[in-house]
What does this fold into?
Amino acid sequence: MDKRTILAMFLTIVVVTLGMFVQTTFFTPDVITSEETVVQQEDVATNTEQVSNTIQSSSNQNTLDSNTNYTYINEKNAWNSGLPGSFSAVEDQSSEEEFLYENGVFSITFDTKGASISSIKLKEHLDTDGNPVELLFKGDSDKNAFLMYAGKDRTNPIDANFNYSVNGNEVTFTKTFALIDSDSNPGDTFKISKTYTFGENEYLFEVDVNIENSVNKAIPLNFENNSYTLAFEPQIGPAFETMSNNNYSYRRFYAKYDGDSKKKTVKVDGSEEIQDYVTWTALAGKYFALIAIPDATQYDITLTQETNVDGLAQSNGMYYTRPVIKSSYNTDTYRFYCGPELSESLSIYNNANDNSFGLSGLHLENAVDASSWLGWLENILKWALNLLNKFIPNYGVDIILLTIILKFLINPLTKKSMQSSAKMSALGPQMEELKKKYEDNPEKLNKQMSELYKKEGVNPISGCLPMLIQFPILIAFYGLLNKHFELRGAMFIPGWITDLSQPETIYTLKFAIPFLGNQIHLLPILYTVSMIFSMKITQSGQSAAAGQSASMMKMMTYGMPIMFFFVLYNAPSGLLLYWSVMNAISILQQVWNNRKAKQNTQKKIAFPKSSPKKKK
It folds into this structure.
């Protein structure tokens, strides 16, 4: 193995590592389905349970008439108890209750407290336990999704108990509130309505927030020049225990600004403000995403990210703050896509005729992490993998078969590389003589070596070029196996490789190993051993190149595989399966070539060519 081969292997590490970096530029309810007609909740006692910040003293309770009580909510910068300009919820017969709504793709648990959602389950996608994926992943004390806050304050939500009704594909919540006048008495009332509208088999739904005053004048909802905030928090599923935010497990924010054709990554360290018009903002994981699409109002958007809060390794929040409302009747329309990162589910919102809401030109598919210049190659490999799966419905077996097919297709390049390396090794003694002879004349040395290559028909670059040609295939396969949605939850070997999109685990330690964690993965070990064995077999079939030290040989044999071991330790099982099989095939191929070369050498020794007779 000469220096050029060493250089090629070094380039392999650099290119594959960079390629991997570039590639990846979570009370039993009552069931109500979309076919049911209007359902009104049951009457309950008139005494409403007080929320944590309710002041319960009788001195701060007033009446509009003899039958209606008011509850004052004490909140900083929002619901100020009895202060002029704040507002309070009217007590009525609404109760705290959860109920279930279902359509073709969702199983959603609504909570009358704050007209919010406590659970979003995707019926067509299962987690590792075989249950529907929970897209709303909450910690021990986290809030529900789609709560409202007064103004821009995110300390305490508007969590009064709303009345609700279900009419076909619409779920509507209503609640009456009262403004507090200068004498700390309830004045004009207004109603907040929040309506969720669903399609039959779509992962996008609308949320309409309507605020209507009881008198024909503007509603003075002004909290530091803001009206209210609609929030999604704290995190999207599936559930996770750790979040390293690498290429294998992450939550990332993206935004598509008006006028831009592509999304932009929004890096959030604690909190990040967006005050420009956006087409949408997205919180995306590896396979699922929440995408918020606002109406034409220019909202102040706040994105948050925190670690180790309320039992979550990482929490993310998305907050849309509305400017001051200056009319007696106002409706804001938000749309949310909560579902898989599949093109067939996302692209239907590019054409108004393809979806229930008449939306077009959203390009939600841009929220999916995809390859750049190697996307075309990924698509070819994906098509081949799906084709094999139609005949053999096991993606693990399909990966092995596709690996064999790829190895067969690139075999001419591999064979040429091996032959070139063998020729270069055979020229080692002659190259060493030239180096000694022209030690003080580098220019002459280069000229003599070029003549030697030309005489022996050796191209030094030909040994490296086939390896470089294989790099795009390796990187494209990495991208495919790292995020191919169909591999999510795909089992190969029961009890061992149960999900080809995740690292397999054979044992979990009670302590963490630096750089590796506390989970023991077998495939990275098998991959590393196969790579070391492959390099040793390759070297056994070649003589040491001129000037190459034993330490250099040892470094390449063990150093590079160990480096890849750490780089790929938490890689998806499918990716490591592919590379391990590729190494195994290379070992068999090299053993065959070594045996064939040995047989040819023995024939030459047994039957030497006779020297030509001299002419008289």
